[in-house]
Amino acid sequence: MTPQQLMSLSEAGTCCEVISVRVNAVAILGITGSTLAKEKGTAATLQMIGKALLQVATSDADLVVNGEALDALFDVFADGDEAETAAKNIQLLPALKALQPVFKAKIRKEGRGKYSPQQLCVLDNIKVNLRRFIGYLEKAMKK
């Protein structure tokens, strides 16, 4: 599958009205990206995946889908030279820093009435992981 085919598939999935389809499309991108991050010469594809995941994390109407996109970003950009290069190129750190207070506020505003206790537990965990991941990226970018 070419990177363009992957992006077309993910775009179709993330535009679907069914929340579980959007979550699964984002998860596929995350798994693919984390696998590619271990390979040489994949920074350009990782940038495409990262941009797509950031788009979903910032603009999807459902908080669970936002959270899944953030979780996928953590997996994709967790380690590796290619991931580090791609993260710098797409300005991942400033994007996540800008997204962090918005995500926290959305959990506070929408969370209690709209989502189950289990979903809220997952979202709170993602919120904590977002803070930690930003710290990790800050240290990685100083190298």
Protein described:
The protein has a single domain, classed as Leucine-rich Repeat Variant. The protein is 83% helix and 0% strand. It is built from seven helices and no strands. It has helices spanning 3-14, 19-36, 43-59, 63-76, 81-89, 92-114, 117-142. The longest helix has 26 residues, at 117-142. The model has no long low-confidence stretch (mean pLDDT 93).
Quick summary:
83% of the residues lie in helices and 0% in strands.
Give a quick set of tags describing it:
mainly alpha; Leucine-rich Repeat Variant; single chain
What is the topology?
Blueprint: H1 3-14, H2 19-36, H3 43-59, H4 63-76, H5 81-89, H6 92-114, H7 117-142
Organism: Takifugu flavidus (sansaifugu)
GO molecular function, one term: unfolded protein binding
Domain SYO1-like TPR repeats: 1-139
CATH topology: Leucine-rich Repeat Variant
Give the SSE order as H and E letters: HHHHHHH
Radius of gyration: 15 Å
Q: Mind telling me which CATH architecture this is?
A: Alpha Horseshoe
Q: Major beta sheet, specifics?
A: none
Low-confidence stretches: none
Strand content: under 5%
Mean pLDDT: 93
Can you give the helix content as a percent range?
A: over 70%
**Alpha carbon gap, first and last residue:** 34 Å
CATH class: Mainly Alpha
Instruction: Supply the number of structural domains.
Output: 1
Count of individual helical segments: 7
Structural class: mainly alpha
**What overall geometry do the principal axes of the alpha carbons give?**
globular
Task: Count every beta strand, where a strand is a DSSP E run of 2 or more residues.
Answer: 0
